[in-house]
Fold cyclic-guanylate-specific phosphodiesterase.
Amino acid sequence: MHPYYPAPWRGIEGNFETLPKAFDSKHQKPNNSARILIADDEPRARASLKEILRFTGYETTLAENGSEAIELLNSRNFDLILLDLNMPDLHGHKVMEHIDNFSLNCDIIVISGETTFDHATMALRNGAQDFLRKPYSPDELLRSVSNALERRQLKAENHSIQLRLEESESLHKFIVNNSPDMIYLLDQEGRFAFINERVKSLLGYSQGEVIGEHFSKFIHTDDMERAQFTFNERRAGERATRSTELKLCSKRNGGTRFFESRAVPIELSSIGIYTTNGDKTKSFIGTYGVARDITERKQAEELIKYQLYHDLLTNLPNRSLFRDRLNMAMAQSKRSGKKLAVMYLDMDRFKIINDSLGHFVGDELLKLVGQRLRSELREADTLARVGGDEFNLLVPEINDIQDARNLAEKILRLTCEPFIIKNEEIFISFSIGISIYPSDGDTKDMLIKNADIAMYKVKNAGKNGYAFYSEKMKTHFSQSLDIENGLRKAISTNELCLYYQPQFDINSGSIKGVEALVRWQHPEKGTIQPSEFISVAEESGLIIPLGEWVLRKACMDIKRWMKEESITLSLSVNISMQQLEMDQFVSKALKIIKRHELPKDSLELEITEHAIMQDMDKAIDALTRFSHKGIRIAIDDFGTGYSSLGYLQHLPINTLKIDRSFVQSIKTSEDNSIIDAIITMAKGLGLNLIAEGVENQTQIEHLSKAGCGLAQGFFFSHPVPENELLEFIKDLRNVDNNEKPESSIAGDSDSPSI
Ligand code: C2E
Ligand code: MG
Ligand code: MG
């Protein structure tokens, strides 16, 4: 081994302390925390190296020979080894071999007295960064160390950049494939050049099944046109990112899913860089896009939209949708010059079905009615449920009102067939009002309102039928004022008169009582029915004097019959809610009864269910006052109100008068569920029952079988003037006297009611 001498700083001018500075300025230390190992068997050489490096700020570790160097290399990390070659125990080349064999990350500078070219090349080939020949100048040493460390640092930085790049690339790949969205690339032809793995979980296709295929293969036909437009727009160089909602076909069970696709065209610039900014000088090479699955949002939106526009019980359109469609149909009619019809369908007696048979049956019935009607209508017709038991039907483009007539008749035919629910047959009927565009109104509100007016007309005329709206119905309303003035006069000039309709005991055939029904003998118009003027009287307050007159006259008549004809009958008088609301009504009525010396319980006041429902609390209050005075109360037209049957328990009532619409629905002896329910319920509540509007023998038979004992109706007698009633009773008495000794006529001991 060559002696290594002298002190390295020898020959350098100036103060020893200045040395590091001079070195510092020349040799920027890339890393003074570098871990440097010095391996030299020559103690002075080691010391000298250590000193030079220490002045420059490097800390070093010393190894006295090759074996110690290897030991240290194995136990710690070194950045650099300054390695002597010629060492007695282990040659420097062996140390280098070890470093190589064990891939130790340590750079090597050989500092050797072996000056031959071969040694130098071998050292460099074995991985040394530099080869310094002893003796070396400190400057030379430091430059070499500095270069080696700088290179090392650069290499480390490069390595870390590389690592970061690789990491970023795999992260990128991870992000693309694990994106919750589908990320895709279409080529110029619209074929998939790339799609991430997400396609598998969203649409069920593998990437391989999609790549190379044209996008149209995956677009649902509903949205094909929109998709073509969107992707072709890209080709035309549209710049902005375009967001489109598309329905895509899933591989699973032919299902579909909704996506929001944001696509942007990719272009290749002249220098071969991909861009997305749509410069016309660049060539379009495809479309880059991200498609987000919005199926759930879409479904929620659709559900909300559906709920906004549909009735969820029947799944029919609701009022809003009906009005929209009507608007559209009117615009269409305006263009085509064709008519359209609006029908207002109201189910008769629905409330009673609902209350007597339960809400489940009521709901089922509405569903079945909706289904039956819908299945018989044209595609273009809109049937909507607009209220509890109310339906609106829009019939666009009719040639003639005869078409509407035919359809209304068809609906009545369809709905009179029984509906089967829980093995029970349920019979219903409808009242239908019809208005025609443009003759009955040129706005949707007017058409609906007029159809509604026509429907009410049907209800008043006995339900189960249809009517076209007519101007007369409107004039009827405008005539109210004339009626009011005329009626005011009629009360004072005695143009009113009373008709009486007898009430019979079905089983014995005897007359039990009479109902007083007012008529207006108009000097010009002849007899006017109460349906023409009672509502006007109620609205104008004239019902108070009118009602008083009716009560007084009826009591007077009855009293006379008792006196002159020996006939005792119970008397039913209709009253309106307005009368009940009047404070003195109870006392006035009682006074009238007293004056005519009538037994209190011979008078029954009838009030309609509908009137009671208008203000239940008031009705309970007034009726209670009557009943405390011993006057009997009957609920008239029972079953037509829209109330719950529970209210009956709160009212002081004696009798239920079953509305004639129920009686008229008795056509066969099986058709009985509702009326039977009413009868059973009334009996349960201990109420008397009387059936109104009895017109034939079948009805009598059924009522009798079901347990309803009393009836009135055209079958027995129409309402008749007083003299005719007396004749009728006398005739009956004669018949009874001749044929039936147990006749029910007054004076007969077996019939206490007359
Ligand atoms: P209401 O009290 O239910 O009277 C029964 C109505 O049914 C009567 O009509 C009667 O003519 C009719 N009717 C009776 N039997 C049959 C039948 O077998 N078939 C058919 N289709 N109809 C039958 P009217 O006399 O026209 O009375 C109509 C309504 O006017 C009455 O219905 C009652 O609510 C009201 N009304 C009559 N008179 C008065 C009154 O003095 N005061 C008040 N407030 N209302 C009255
Ligand atoms: Mg009545
Ligand atoms: Mg009635």
The CA atoms of residues 167 and 740 lie 115 Å apart.
